[in-house]
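Anyone? Bumping this.
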Amino acid sequence: MSDSPGALEQAPPVDGGGVPLAVVRGEPQFELPEDLYIPPDALEVFLDAFEGPLDLLLYLIRRQNLDILDIPIASITRQYMEYVELMRELRLELAAEYLVMAAMLAEIKSRMLLPRPVSEEEESEDPRAELIRRLQEYERFKQAAEEIEALPRLGRDVFQAVIAFPDRQVRQCQPDVGLDELMRALHEVLRRADLFSSHHVEKETLSVRERMASVLERLDGEGFTEFTRLFDLAEGRMGAVVTFIAVLELVKESLIELVQSDNFAPIHVRARSAA
Amino acid sequence: MSVQEPLKNILEAALLAAGKTLSLEQMAALFAAGGEPDKAALREALEALRGDYEGRGMELKQVAGGYRIQVRAEYAQWVSRLWDEKPGRYSRALMETLALIAYRQPITRGEIEEIRGVSVNTYIIKTLMEREWVRVVGHRDVPGRPALYATTRAFLDYFGLRSLDELPTLAEIRDLGEIDRELQQQAAEASAPRSGLPLAGEEPEPGLPDAANEPPDDRNREKQDIEKQGAE
Amino acid sequence: MSVQEPLKNILEAALLAAGKTLSLEQMAALFAAGGEPDKAALREALEALRGDYEGRGMELKQVAGGYRIQVRAEYAQWVSRLWDEKPGRYSRALMETLALIAYRQPITRGEIEEIRGVSVNTYIIKTLMEREWVRVVGHRDVPGRPALYATTRAFLDYFGLRSLDELPTLAEIRDLGEIDRELQQQAAEASAPRSGLPLAGEEPEPGLPDAANEPPDDRNREKQDIEKQGAE
């Protein structure tokens, strides 16, 4: 193979031998590896096997047992172009990335043909360096993907153990509620109903409301109850006042009725709804 | 104890992986044609397995279709908790209904609806009654005789109150609204300059309190809860 | 040891009945409030369980989400006969995308494409998200605000890993400056008969500057990826 730029760069002159084609791990190679050239019909087989231009390049390099650093850029470029050409011939949808890579390879090749200014070695980066970086970077993740693929997987290599549970009981748990949540809910509903401005709500004491409920509950469905039995002497004067206000409020809301059969006769109370 | 260890282990592995009853035929079919153990060998291995499980959390049970490994009944009470329904959150509608019953009792459903401006789902009242936070204390004497709802002692106990008087006053609730607004403003300001990315494994930020009032999608919540538990 | 038999058996029954990974928190939640064993007790019981399973058909495995009981891999060949359908393979494109997300998280689709050298099919991202191996953890603050992807706990559990640290180590790479130096020295070699330069395929010298240039999530390995690849 007359790969003069690649050979020029990679082949140190070795005594008695002519020019080696490449140096692999420090060993000069004088003969072409048999699989260096991939026949086009074989390429077809690999058509779907490559994950993009980097993958294809890696394949071409590895087929020659070369290190990434030893890329014989001219021959690799030629092989790459053949692949791309084949894809075109087969009118396969060629991802734009392949063409971008082709252009990049061509550029590297042309730059390597140019003589390198010896004085400015620091500044003139080898044109292959960026390509090599990308190949290395891609290769490590390609390999990582293979290793992840090989990890034991649930359902393929290991199986979750599960046994029957005939005595299963279903319990329901109830949500926890904080008082602050309740207050926020009330705040929201009152704000919407614009009840903050209502004196009617504002001045009510809750103990009266509570007592209204308990009086009502005691009366519900019982027929008449003697008024005095609604009071619990143990609660004292305040208790009596609260009950009394509660009864008045219940009367006002038409929830109970008071009945007195005669003057000074005992007052009876009953729930209106019980009638 | 002449049972071949591999056979016993293979059967154990298969029964555990299957998670259901396997017949002797199914067990024999695990082996390459020609290499199937006969039924006597299978039974012997299963018998050994049954013995291994003495005093363990599981047992080998022979049922009509074959054999299965199952949880020992004596551990059911603990294991059952795995399926305890994760408590969700109550909807805003429920919380508002409860608050109105607490502050305006005795109150009918119609009156609650009037204040809230929307109808109250029967399910909400049912939930509150089942929770024993709310009871019917009578009926209003109007057409339809609607039930009058009031809160219960259990309601007070749950919220740590001795009486309804200990509930915050409406004035305090109004202030609460203002505090909320301030907090939200602060939160909004605090989040504005934040650009740090959540790290892998971190949960997304919890929503603002108002978002939590939305009716929950229980399935999602359950998942979140589990994830959160796992992350702790 | 002194492990309470009931505790060990309860955990065994729960792990087997759950049929999935349970966290220590979930295990503690099996017990009535106030009676939960502490984490040390749970770990001790699990350790005892692990010992019990030596030489059995199953094993106790610790993964990111907690613990699970699984069938030992050595019995997979028999167990897999229980199912006709074999688990499908994932494409290389999907696995490479997953690998990049796992090692480089959080990462955008554009960044994945840059390294792979080809565009990433939307279908791949969708599959990874549906599988719940990958999730969006944020957006990069650049035009278009591309989503940042990261792996999930489910990903770790599925591959039997406790944390990302347990992923296979990434191959070491040489940085650009060093590559260039080597290339130039190679060129210089053309005129010099011999050199002690580290050539491709040799062990990297300790203390080479490239180690310091590695991103923090990359773990270096001694193994040479190049030899492995070349041997294929």
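Late reply, but here is one note on the structure posted above: Strands of chain C lie at 58-63, 66-71, 134-139, 147-151.
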